[in-house]
Amino acid sequence: MLGTGILKGMVETAKNFAGSYHDPERLTTVEYPEQRIASKENARQFPFLVHDTEDPMQGLRCVACQICEKECPPQCIYIVKSKDKRADYKGQMQLYPVTFDIDLSVCMSCQICVEVCPFEAIKMDTEFELSNTDRFGGLLVNKHQLAKSNEHYRKIHPTEAAVSDDALAIEVAKAKAKAKADVEAKAKAAADAKAKAEAAAAAAPVGVAATAPVPKPSAPAAAPAAAPAA
Amino acid sequence: MDGTQFMTFHDLAYDAGKTDFQRKAEVIGVGREGELLEVAMGPQHPSTHGVFRMDVVLDGETVVKLKPVFGYLHRNHEKIAENTSYLGSMPYTDRLDYFCSLTNNWAYALAVEKLAGLQVPERAEYIRLITAELTRVLNHTCLAGFLLQDMGALGTPLMYAFREREKILDLFESLTGARMMCNYMRFGGCRCDLPAGWLAEARKVVAEYPKFLDEFDALLSGNEILMARTQGVGKLSAELAINAGITGPMLRASGVDYDLRKVDNYGIYSRYPFRVPLGDHGDVYDRYMIRMLEMRESLKILEPALKDIPEGPVVDPKAKLRGFRPKPGEAYGRIETPKGELGFYLISDGSPNPYRYRVRPPSLINLTILEDMCLGQTVADAVITLGSVDIVLGEVDR
Amino acid sequence: METLEQTLARAAVAAPGAQLSVVKNDSPCAQHSLLVDVEHAYAVAKFLRDDPQLRLDYCSNVTGVDFLDAELSEKVKVKKVVDGVEKEVEEVKKTKRAGYLEAVYHLYSMALKHGPVILRQRTPGRADPVKVTSLTPLWRSCEFQEREVFDLYGVLFDGHPDLRRILMWDGFKDYPMRKDYAEPDDYEYEPTPHDEVLEKAKAHLPKAEVKA
After folding, report:
1. How distant is the Cα of A32 from the closest Cα of chain C, in angstroms?
2. ipTM of this predicted structure
3. What is the Cα–Cα distance from A90 to B19, expressed in whole angstroms?
């Protein structure tokens, strides 16, 4: 019968209309500024820089390697390297960024900077209420605005942060082991050199030095001995 | 640019020195100059789904000529990609067809994998299939809503469609971090593994979706007004559709059995049986129904795939993120996106950037026969014919 | 499906006088292509479309490609007499290749569900006007795509029914996808943190601002 299709449709809309008064499933919108939907753990908005210590500028993990600047598809990152070096979280001397600017009006939240960063230094934030009346200056953020603590990172992306922390802990352990090995190797090399020097000094008067290829008892001898150990 | 030349509608006429109206009048309206009306529908027109213009010549209310004009959103995506690394183009592919970023990602990743000979792990193939089918469901849901909006069913069907779309977008957000600009696929796999509990949520959405489809069908598919408005409108013959390179639901609505999921067997589609719905009139109603049926078929693929998904790595360990340089050569990779065949043609010269990067946009090519479908119909039918083509201007203009 | 060499042999018979060759593709997918001269492109394409074994009724993709003038260096082993002994010595042979523009067609068959057969047309040089043969009379799907190649590369398609700009506006002069295209530096100069953009922008700022 003509008209049944329309009536069926009307019944459907009536169900939805009535349902919206008592069935929470049918109430799909929220009143935004007052009510909010909890953000998803993986959600990403704009990048920030992670720091470890109390002083944000001292503890920045970024070593100004400029990989993110190069890989950023819309080219919104701008980095100036420092002239001097300072110790990073594992005690290695590294450069640091004097300037680190991100133009958020250009950034397209693609997360490629995070993926390519070998130092776990740049991560995605979940902050999105960044509207600003200054179109050019207001959305150009510098390293002071970008720096956020590792605790913040752990709070917004707990799973990801745990992975990142583990990776860094391994790095630190490796660095410590290497430093320890270095110290031991140096001590051993010094001892070896000393022993050789003594042996050479003892042997020289007898005149063996002309026939046997004994290394010269001088300071540089310590260097080749230490090299394989390191 | 030389000064601020203001272009009027007549400056944009197709023959130098002659307005479109004059040329058309010579052909069809000899002696009827006063009767034909030249109308520019768009670029700011709610029925054009973006910044798109139809230059229509009308005889009363009948369309006697129609030329699509686009390029308002042109940003030379291909040139940008030639100046960016292979990885750097991935987020830009999200912005082609911004409803279906995950299928765009897949098409591009597939082309690069062909170029560089990368293998995709099992689990990544499953994730790709699941996200692509969810995207298809999402796109067709929205299209049905938009199409009905074009027909004058203001608000209600579109809002119902958007309510359901939101559930899938939530899944995408918890997986990829973004609702629409997902940037999720990588060469040789996917960017990250599924978060905990994602599969359970996806299963819930997929299990509940048929309920919505039933509701939508009851609401509209049998509606007499909808039938009267769409049946026999915007007809497209199978021969013309093939010759004009029409792909996707548009082609299948004309009765041509050509679905790349079956033809090319990319990914793991061969493991899941599904049917390809075909139309037999090639009109707007068929195109609408094809999409409703395709959604049900997609859900049939999703249900077992969400159960079968194995554990394992999600990315080929040989794939390099930084310093990716495929050997010189070229490759054309294509997949069946919700809009049709999306292809990427890449030429590598061994450098980190592609030498040539070409997108074969389904929406653009599906527009080729817009005029053929609209001639002789009323201007209101031209609007729904355009709606049934399913264009996204981000992809048409690139 | 037959190999590209077999297709070539049969196409050469069907279109007498056509200069056909196979362009090798080194990538793992090994999609080789068929290079045809501009004069016989239409005849060869018609053969590919209508031949009952091929039936390539669907032209999926039309691409313009720009190759600049280039110096190709090739390592060649040459026998030479060095110090009275004949030896094989590797020499770098340099050849100059004139630049050209290409139109690449990816053809598939919807009837027989095979493909792709890739057809290329090459222009003799890059100096305007560069012309190839339009295949729009054979496949409607080329209509917009050939217009796009014309718009972005400046390749003229002989026999195209409606060749005009499609993505750029009608008053636009240059061809932006060509490899030697230099973008005008005044089309966008928003302040960004990047020095080069700021430098470019300076030239376009009002005089007073530059002083400050």
Report:
1. 32
2. 0.82
3. 73
